[in-house]
Amino acid sequence: MKKQTLLIMRHAKSDWSANMEDFDRPLNRRGLKEAAKMGKWLRKQKIMPDRIVCSPAMRARQTIEIVCEQLRKHAPAITWDERIYEARLDDLLKVIAEHGKNAECVLLTGHNPGLDHLVNHLSKDSSPHTEVGKLMTTATIAILEFGEKGISDKQGSGKVVKLARPKEI
Fold it and tell me: Which of 23, 54, 109, 133 suits 76 as a labelling partner, its CA being 20 to 30 A distant?
C-alpha cells in the first residue's frame, strides 16, 4: 500500500445568531467565501479526496458542499457522520479508523476543539499555531500523510505536510 493522506478541515466561519440552535447555524458571508477559496485551492493543488466524511451540522454541510462544487467532477459522495458533531478525540479516532480503510485520500470536515486535538494527536511534530494560539482556525485544512501502514489512529502516526489557512494561501 502506498502513502495515504488525511485532510482535516474545520468548517468555515458561521453565523452566531442567538435565535438558532448551534447545530443549525449557517455560514456567514465570510464563511461562504472561505469555503469556495479552500475548494479552489484543493483543486489547484490537485488534492482530490476519494472519500469525504462530514459532520451533519449546517455550517459543516455548507462548507463541504461548497468545497465539492469547486472540486467539480472529482468530488466523491459525502458520508454524513453524526459522531463528528461535538466529537471528542476518541470519537474522531473511531471515525478515521473506519473511513480511512482502503482510501488514498480522506477528507474529514468538522468542528473544534475536537479537530485541534485530532491534529495534535496524529502529528509527529508540533503544528504551527496562529499568533493567538489557534491551530484549526475556520476553513483551515491540515494535510497529514501516513506511511505504508496507512491512515492510523495511533499517536504520532502522521506528519502534517501542510496547514492551509484561508488568510495564508
Answer: 23
